[in-house]
Amino acid sequence: MSTSAAAGSRDKEVGAYRYQRHQPENTLLYQIVERYYPEFTAYLAEQGAVLPQYVQREFEAYLKCGRLEHGFLRVQCNHCHAEHLVACSCKCRGFCPSCGARRMAESAALLVDEVLPEQPMRQWVLSFPYPLRFLFASQPAIMTGVLGIVYRAIATHLIHKAGYTRKTAETGAVTLIQCCGSALNLNIFTCYSWMVSTSLRPRVQAPVSIESMNPPVQS
After folding, report:
1. In the sheet that 173-180 helps form, which strands lie side by side, from edge to edge?
2. Burial of 155 (0-12, 13-18, 19+ CB in 10 A)
3. Between 120 and which of 3, 47, 197, 200 could a Cys-Cys bridge form, CB atoms 3.0 to 4.6 Å apart?
């Protein structure tokens, strides 16, 4: 390979990792929200209604996410001393694609690398009737209590299915709460990732062991 060709190859490799600033103002979602959100809130005001505060905060934070004029960090490479401006993010959990994807990737990495054991998992999905959805949305503390009851019920069922009792065995789950559907409608449901094919059985003066469980069957 010639010197010029090798240099061009290195330039391509370096360019592949070059930092590119996220520009949400160029996305279709941002343009739609920026254009119609003020009109929508004005329309609600004429009708004598307002959006809930948490919904307003979500929209307003999204419109500032990734915009340099709303705050940024100036970072410098320790090796080449190149400088870049990194805009602050909203870090919200609603509909911001950038922050949502980042949170999803970080949460998945945390669960896989540090929380969940390398054992088979099974997912349980719990949905609620509409009256309870509105109740949980307005009073999250009640939902916390309900989820605790559901957790104990499923854990007891799985431990008994494995042939043990709550005094001699433990099992575990990770609960993820979904608050809206694909149309941003209020649809609270939970996803439990249970270590259901195995059960933790503590033994006296011995490490925790993994006990297999039979798969579910149709009754």
Report:
1. 122-127, 186-194, 173-180
2. buried
3. 197
Q: Is residue 5 part of a domain?
A: no
Instruction: Enumerate residue ranges in the chain where pLDDT < 70.
Output: 1-17, 182-184, 195-219
The total number of structural domains in the chain stands at: 2
Residue 173: closest CA among 123, 107, 136: 123
| Residue 28, domain extent | 19-104
Q: Are residues 172 and 134 in the same domain?
A: yes
